[in-house]
Amino acid sequence: MTRTDGDSQGAGPDGERTFAALPPARGRAFTRTWWGARWLKALEDTALESEQLRRGRRFARQGAVGAVSVRPGRITAVVRDRDGSPHRADVLLRELTVAEWERLLEVAARESGHIAALLDGDMPPRLVEEAESVGVELLPGIGDLDPSCDCDAWDHCPHTTALCYQMARLLDEDPFVLLLLRGRPERELLDELGLRSTARKAGPATGEESAQARGGEPAGVPADQAFALGGILPPLPAPPPLPLPAEPATSPSLDGGAPLLLAGTSGPDTTALEFLASDAALRAQQMLRDALTPAHAGSEPSRPLTRSEDAVRLAAAAPVQPVAERLAEGCGLTPPQLASAARAWESGGGAALSLWAEPWTPGADEMARARVQLAAAWTEEEAPPALHVTDNRWTTPDDSAQLRLGRDGRWWPYRDEHGTWSPAGGPEQDPAAALAVASGRHEPGRDERT
Fold first, then answer.
1. How many domains does the chain have?
2. Which of 182, 198, 214 is the last residue of a domain?
């Protein structure tokens, strides 16, 4: 999707950009992108009152949010109540420090595709992952979106909530808006990335030269400290070379030369072996990147995948048809079912796959909360749809779309595809938004899957 600046009214001296008020968002999800969904998750995980979230979503759906001003550390808009009274709403997000920007720019400059993707209106997942691996949180997390409103609410109110929902729509179109909010205007950012890319092509400097060029001292540990620790600490393996390779190594071709024969068989399936080798290289790179993140030491190890889960994970990599057929056979699914399961895996890993595979029965409290959410999801001007419920699944009368309630209280959109229920997107706090995705009424242009 090509990025456009048609809604922006120009940049101020500090890079501030103002976006014209967006039209009402009735009958559509607020975001179509994975990074927009992460923004909303930060809001929904932070807000203490679900009623304020519900009212804020309603304000945003009705077009009550005026022009949005975005500048480093702050977004601002006037949001009108149902009686027309205006309120100034602000949401603050911490600007990155100089050191954090230094690390982020180094990560972004390593691969020209990162810059090209941003210019094309896309936020590369690998850019965010690599930034996190060097301790830079680009997207907000729980508690990062700090609200301020002249209605004197001490937490997120309907006005700041509506502003956040509107901001998700702006981020969909232009991820540079997030970078501006983190502290750097687009033009300044692109100029700096251009300089770094040119310097990298000219050849790497030594560590001492790089440090002196930034006006600092060469990095290192005092010799007496290193010597004192030598007899205490066990020997450590050499760290991997940094930066990590941008791409995992490709597997060698196995279909040439003399055939590799196994006793009692006609030989191994070279196509499957090449696919497994490529997958192993990709997973090894991901595991190494995760191991180098600051938070890795305190994290819990992942649960080993079952054979069926691993087959679905492999199928999500879109292998060639013979390999996909063997994976389907190995986990007892038909090829269409495996394709559907793979989409579930892409939308949320093992939890989403479990929701795809088996229904569960909500308890009385969970069912009561779900019914309250459904009753509040549609405005007075929009009649709520008639849905029939079985366990955790709410289905439209024509059996074309379905909402599935997850154990975390979020709603997952599903649609019927040739007799198989298939995931239509990621989870939503708002069941109306999830049903809009499931029914295909969201705005086209991007794949909702992450």
1. 2
2. 198
Whether residue 222 lies inside any domain: the answer is no
Q: Assess contact for 71 and 12: CB atoms under 8 A.
A: yes
Q: In this structure, are residues 392 and 383 in contact, taking their beta carbons and an 8 Å threshold?
A: no
| Residues 63, 163: Cα–Cα separation, whole Å | 11
DSSP, residue by residue, 128-180: HHHHHHTT---S--TT-SEEEETT--SS--HHHHHHHHHHHHHHHH-THHHHH
Query: With the C-alpha atoms ordered 210, 212, 216, 217, is the resulting torsion angle positive or negative?
Result: positive
User: What gap in Å lies between CA 78 and CA 443, rounded to an integer?
Assistant: 25
Secondary structure of 194-237 in HEC code, one letter for each residue: HHHHHHHHHCCCCHHHHHHHCCCCCCCCCHHHHHHHHCCCCCCC
End-to-end CA distance of the chain: 16
Structure tokens at 249: 């190594």
Residue 387 placed within a domain: yes
C-beta atoms surrounding 125 within 10 Å = 12
As to burial, measured by CB atoms within 10 angstroms (0-12 exposed, 13-18 middle, 19+ buried), residue 95 is: middle
Note whether residue 64 is domain-resident. yes
The contacts of residue 78 (CB under 8 Å, 6+ apart) are: 65, 66, 67, 86, 87, 88, 89
**Integer Cα distance of 312 and 322 in angstroms:** 15
pLDDT digits (tens, 9 = 90+) for 153-199: 888 899 999 999 999 999 988 989 999 999 999 888 888 887 776 66
Peptide bond into 243 cis (omega under 30): yes
Residue with tokens 């690998």: 126
Tens digits of per-residue pLDDT, 264-288? Answer: 445 567 778 888 888 888 888 777 7
As a whole number of angstroms, the distance between CA 324 and CA 317 comes to 10
Question: To which H or E segment does residue 54 belong?
Answer: helix 50-61
Query: Is residue 312 in a domain?
Result: no
pTM of the model: 0.52
376 and 54 in contact (C-beta within 8 Å)?
Answer: yes
- Domain boundary, last residue among 198, 229, 246: 198
Rounded to an integer, what distance in angstroms lies between the CA atom of residue 102 and that of residue 96? 10
Copy the structure tokens of residue 204: 């790497």
* Structural domain span for residue 29: 8-198
